[in-house]
Amino acid sequence: MKPTASVRFHAAQALLPQGWAQDVRIDSVAGRITAVAVGEAWDGQAQRLDVVVPGLGNLHSHAFQRAMAALTEVGGRSGDSFWSWRELMYRFLDRLDPDTFQAIAAQAYMEMLESGFTRVGEFHYLHHAEDGRRYADHAEMAVRVAAAADETGLGLTLLPVFYAHSDFGGAAATPAQRRFLHDIDDFAALLDGCTRALAGTADAVLGLAPHSLRACTPQQLQALEAMAPGPIHIHIAEQTREVDACLAWSGQRPVEWLYANASVDQRWCLVHATHLTDGEVQQIADSGAVVGLCPITEANLGDGLFPMRDFVRAGGRFGVGSDSNVLIDAAEELRLLEYGQRLQLRGRNVLSPGELSSGRWLFQQAAEGGAQALGVPAGLAVGACADLLELDREHPALLGRMGDTLLDSWLFAARNGALRSVWRNGRAVVRDGRHVNRDAITTRYRAALARILA
């Protein structure tokens, strides 16, 4: 979906990097904001909007998992955990071909836009055919990710995943992992294919992702860091079993080992990082890396709670992602992030330093951290993408609100319908809460799901 050549917006109220402003004119050319002016009356021609906030980045997604959402909620299995869920996910993968994969990704990306996410970091590890063989186009599945993003209009930061081993110390991969696997030379060829796949996708960003310390050796991690064309994302310290296995292998915890063996800086996003020591919390904050939190998935999988208040007090940066896509809802990710900490700490408004409301602080911090992790500028500012969310002040939860209380009401008190429109790269992709191509996308998804579940 190509950006429009030139669009001028007028917002009655908009959240700019410096705070809320009235009567805001936003000019964009080819999807990029070229000018922002405050205190200007509507000229009768600009696209008129009411309350506008910047789009939110979804920094961690496995799009294909949207189709298996809620199919693993069956009690009675002894020791049901992330690890047993993973085995079910591997079996689900055996049913996905490129067409089915693209239809599922488009459905997920459409839902992201309808919820307020305007860019996704697709942590993409489904590379090969069902039997593990390469497709004729090595980057076939990356082409399908790009096509789904282009069809829906969602911004894309593609993170092809390197996966070579099943556990620490270079353990051999299992047959269930055959669709993921590469050596370093093959992965370099995949990156070349991903570059070609993104050539026609507006404002796409290419990074890469060592899947985890379990899935690559120290030598492979070093090679991946050197070849990274953009952001570097990695799953780390999500489960206590992973921490214990890393200690047994190296004598160090996962985050401790990573910082001792890689040059972790602002390019990096550490996904989950749930189980940390105080020293690791400070180390991540000092490095400028972003922690990628996925509260809905982390709750669904029983991961545990990230030490958020300590991380915030240390000056840490964070963003949110939808990960397994069991539920796609930008507001719910932020709400659950705050509520998890309230339950753990037995207090209210436990994260915001005080000068901002909880909703405003959560949204602003996640938007800035998400943009950093996805390799794009943040906010409604010159040079950033023209990604705008229009809140509906006629929604019952938003009536009579102004400024920060609008964000608080959206995140903590509203459900569906609080977003009136979504503009991505200067083009309307959601109107009256509904994606402009919803019917066609959902029809293909329904057919794909019927094939899978048959």
Structural overview:
The structure is a single chain. With 454 residues, the chain is an alpha/beta fold. The chain folds into 2 domains: 6-54 and 382-440, Urease, subunit C, domain 1 (Roll); 56-374, Metal-dependent hydrolases (TIM Barrel, Alpha-Beta Barrel). Helix content is 37%, strand content 23%. It contains 14 helices and 19 strands. It has helices spanning 82-93, 98-115, 140-152, 184-197, 218-227, 240-250, 254-261, 278-287, 295-300, 308-313, 330-345, 358-374, 404-413, 438-453; strands spanning 6-16, 19-29, 32-38, 47-54, 56-61, 117-124, 155-162, 165-167, 171-172, 205-206, 209-210, 232-236, 268-272, 290-293, 317-320, 388-391, 419-424, 427-431, 434-435. The strands form 4 sheets. An 8-stranded mixed beta sheet has the order 3-2-1-4-16-17-18-19, covered by helices on one side. Helix 2 (98-115) runs parallel beside helix 3 (140-152) and helix 2 (98-115) packs across helix 14 (438-453). The mean pLDDT is 94.
Given the structure, what is the number of helices? 14
- CATH-scheme architecture of the largest domain: Alpha-Beta Barrel
Biggest sheet, spatial arrangement of strands: 3-2-1-4-16-17-18-19
Query: What is the number of beta strands?
Result: 19
Secondary structure class reads: alpha/beta
Average pLDDT number: 94
Note poorly predicted spans: none
- Can you tell me the overall shape? globular
- Report the sheet-strand fraction: 15-25%
CATH topology of the largest domain: TIM Barrel
Protein name: N-formimino-L-glutamate deiminase
Organism: Stenotrophomonas terrae
Domain Amidohydrolase-related: 51-429
Domain Formimidoylglutamate deiminase N-terminal: 10-45
